[in-house]
Amino acid sequence: MATDQWKELTHLSQALENLASLVAKSVVRVDDGTSLTASGIIWSAEGIIVATSHGVERDEELAVELHDGTMLAATLVGRDHDSDIAVLRVDKVDLPILEKVPEPGPKVGQLALAVARPGTFGLCATMGLVSARIETQRLGLPEHIIYTDAQFPPGFSGGALVNVQGQLLGLIDRIFARGHGVALGVPVIQHAVESLLTHGRIPHAYLGVKIQTVSLPPHLQNLLGVHQDKAVMCVHIETDSAAERAGLLPGDILLAIADTPITDPVTLRRVLRTLQAGQTVELKLVRGGVLTTLQITLGNAL
């Protein structure tokens, strides 16, 4: 290998090592007493830690290990099950925090470094590209989800995804997209933290159904006059839920809510994030092969 190429690779390797070391100061290990501890990010210098809700399985007897090995008792401020975020508090100030990436945020094609502290493995890092950015909303506020081709092993959830400047892009979450390389964008975290710190909970529009994706064959699309090849079928209706009060039944196939087509559970969750509890919207559905509509007043999921 030519000397110049060797120098360039050495410089790149050293730069990545320095970046990982810098980010590592703001990435913690969250011990909830289970066999596989989770990662977390220091969100504020005043002791606020963010992690994934699925990674923090217990509500009590929590601890956070800082980059220097210091163990601190932690209390749970609250959880946002919809975005899978848990907010913790430790009794320590002047903690090192990561700069948040400014708007407009990450762009497709940018390099991204993932840093986490899974289990007892210590500091771990991997990298890849920002492969997609999915725009979402929460009550009209813009948010986004980041997809990356970086591989996230178990325990990486709650770690930091950063750009080459060391700015925080998002919170790694392996469960949010069922094992794909996903991070919750900074606005998702910001809105959840603000609401949990202020109210201790986050109200969400809620249907009260268990659903599964189903295919709509071409002949059924033609019969119904719809232009989507997938929808979701209700397999269970919760007692005393908004869905039950509206008259939804097991076997109903939901095509759209509030004029937005529903093609899978992720789409339904994304649409519900834009709506408010107590809001009345129209459901378009198929029951017994017949296209019909229902008015539903959305419930409140805390």
Task: Offer a quick outline of the entry.
One of its GO terms (biological process) is proteolysis. The chain is of the alpha+beta class.
Order of helices and strands: HEEEEEEEEEEEEHEEHEHEEHEEE
Spatial ordering of strands, largest sheet: 1-2-3-6-5-4
Count of helical stretches: 5
Total strands: the figure is: 20
GO molecular function: serine-type endopeptidase activity
Keywords: Hydrolase, Protease
Organism: Chthonomonas calidirosea (strain DSM 23976 / ICMP 18418 / T49)
InterPro entries: Chloro_Bact_Ser_Proteases (IPR051201), PDZ (IPR001478), PDZ_sf (IPR036034), Peptidase_S1_PA (IPR009003), Peptidase_S1C (IPR001940)
Description:
It contains five helices and 20 strands. The chain has 302 residues and is α+β, with helices and mostly antiparallel strands. It folds into three domains: 3-90, Beta Barrel (Thrombin, subunit H), CATH 2.40.10.10; 111-188, Beta Barrel (Thrombin, subunit H), CATH 2.40.10; 204-301, Roll (Pdz3 Domain), CATH 2.30.42.10. The model has no long low-confidence stretch (mean pLDDT 90).
